[in-house]
Amino acid sequence: MGEIVVVHGANRLAFSDELSVAELRKQLEDRTGVPAAAQKLIMRGKSLTDDEIVVKLGSKVMLLGSTAESRKETDAMAKIRKVEKRVGELDVTREELSATLHEISRGFLDKEETADVLDTLEKKLKSCEEGLRQCLESLDSIPAESDTVRIHRKAAVLECQAKLRVCDHLRDDVSLAREDPNDEVESRRGTTHS
């Protein structure tokens, strides 16, 4: 019964004096970085309020709450995941456009239909590229205040840039298809972009 033990995640903090709940919150803020207003203290299954006078020696208290930095990191990671999801959606669209171009190159359409389909394909490709640029702008606006966020943001940027390069190649393939719509895209370029 010699101390108050506070469990916060995997950490165990010990206090050797009886403390009021307000004093305990202040000391926990100093030791954990969790702001007093964001702390939830639980003892014997009940939330402690500042109205309670003293936490006695021998008590075991659970601290729930996170630091402002950890909340910022969580928010930043959520934004990165949202951008990654959008990049994935845009890449599915790009793959569909690539498949459409491949079908055009197989010669199943006459020249007029091919021109119309290529016009539509170019518009959709432009929209896809614009979406990827917006994703890059979104990633650029996310502050990288921790190594974790910095690493994930960088990976997302590189992925987005790679998808933009693939769109550039697809745009070149569309231009080549306009010149000779019945020639296989793969044979002209020597590679595929799927």
TrEMBL record:
InterPro entries: BAG_chaperone_regulator, BAG_dom_sf, BAG_domain, Ubiquitin-like_dom, Ubiquitin-like_domsf. This is Ubiquitin-like domain-containing protein. GO terms for biological process: protein stabilization. GO terms for molecular function: adenyl-nucleotide exchange factor activity; protein-folding chaperone binding. Transmembrane segments: none annotated. SUPFAM superfamilies: BAG domain, Ubiquitin-like. The keyword Translocase does not apply. GO terms for cellular component: cytosol; membrane; nucleus. Residues 13-58 form the Ubiquitin-like domain. Residues 111-138 form a coiled coil. Keywords: Chaperone, Coiled coil. The keyword Chaperone applies.
